[in-house]
Inverse folding.
């Protein structure tokens, strides 16, 4: 029986390495698929529309390359359609790939796809219509992921995010938070919220015990007083550093950890959410698990 796939890629992800390896990628995919269609997306909207179209076109697999933002575009394009995906990480940080233990080399990722082992994974649905694969975040340093210029990422790689974070986010703005997760409720002010489905954020394994197939999400809130003085602000920097170095279960009185099937967060309309490194909506969110809704080629015998 004839098999066909489509290969979608974002020419701007990472340092443009995928465009240089198109012939190799197509040659490798042709060892598994009788027909391989290649499509270079002109932008996020184009990619989402092409995924939607491909999902209904009878392809045996939709293979795509790009970074975490590209993965988010794929989610929004596919929704919860039944599609077999394959992923070649080609971004600057590639947190989804780190969480799933997908090799970050083109050759290694293709090996995973060609071996054909598929996993059904959770993703997150936000306010009923937005999606995130590994993180929904608000507050300290999160805007760096979508404000960093593409030229800077190409030149500096992950360091570009660090420079943007220092330039734009050193103040650590404080915002009100009312969070509800299961029977637990938190009323506070905060400088950072992470709602997590993956293990890795900004290349740090801060949720190393998390899973993309357990039907749960984790959330971590770094608390702050409404009008912090100098020492309170310094304390918040140490808490952010502790979170990334020691993980989200670190024992600190100003770090709150939650876990469940969904979490509702009430906050100011000025608070901007980041979904997988892409600028998202503002204000209140309800994040819920979509259990086992994504079919993706992944390494076998790995704890995902």
């Amino acid at each position: 029986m004839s098999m066909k796939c489509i290969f979608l890629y974002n020419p701007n992800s990472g340092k443009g390495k995928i465009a240089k390896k198109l012939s190799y990628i197509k040659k490798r995919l042709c060892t598994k698929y009788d027909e391989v269609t290649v499509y270079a997306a002109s932008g996020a909207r184009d990619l989402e529309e092409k995924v939607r179209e491909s999902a209904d076109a009878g392809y045996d697999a939709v293979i795509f390359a790009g970074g975490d933002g590209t993965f988010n575009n794929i989610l929004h394009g596919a929704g919860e359609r039944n599609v077999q995906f394959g992923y070649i990480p080609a971004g600057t940080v590639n947190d989804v790939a780190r969480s799933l233990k997908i090799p970050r080399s083109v050759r290694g990722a293709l090996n995973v796809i060609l071996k054909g082992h598929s996993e059904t994974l959770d993703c997150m649905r936000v306010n009923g219509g937005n999606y995130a694969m590994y993180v929904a975040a608000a507050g300290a340093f999160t805007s760096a992921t979508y404000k960093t210029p593409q030229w800077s990422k190409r030149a500096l790689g992950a360091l570009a995010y660090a420079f943007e974070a220092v330039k734009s986010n050193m103040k650590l703005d404080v915002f009100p938070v009312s969070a509800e997760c299961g029977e637990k409720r938190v009323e506070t002010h905060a400088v950072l919220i992470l709602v997590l489905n993956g293990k890795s954020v900004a290349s740090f394994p801060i949720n190393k015990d998390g899973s993309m197939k357990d039907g749960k999400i984790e959330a971590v809130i770094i608390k702050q007083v409404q009008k912090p003085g100098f020492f309170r602000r310094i304390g918040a920097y140490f808490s952010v550093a502790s979170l990334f170095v020691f993980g989200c279960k670190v024992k600190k009185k100003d770090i709150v950890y939650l876990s469940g099937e969904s979490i509702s967060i009430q906050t100011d309309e000025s608070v901007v959410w980041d979904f997988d490194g892409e600028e998202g909506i503002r204000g209140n969110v309800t994040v819920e698990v979509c259990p086992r809704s994504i079919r993706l080629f992944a390494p076998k015998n790995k704890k995902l």
The radius of gyration is 19 Å. Residues 21 and 106 are 8 Å apart (CA to CA). The chain has a mean pLDDT of 88.
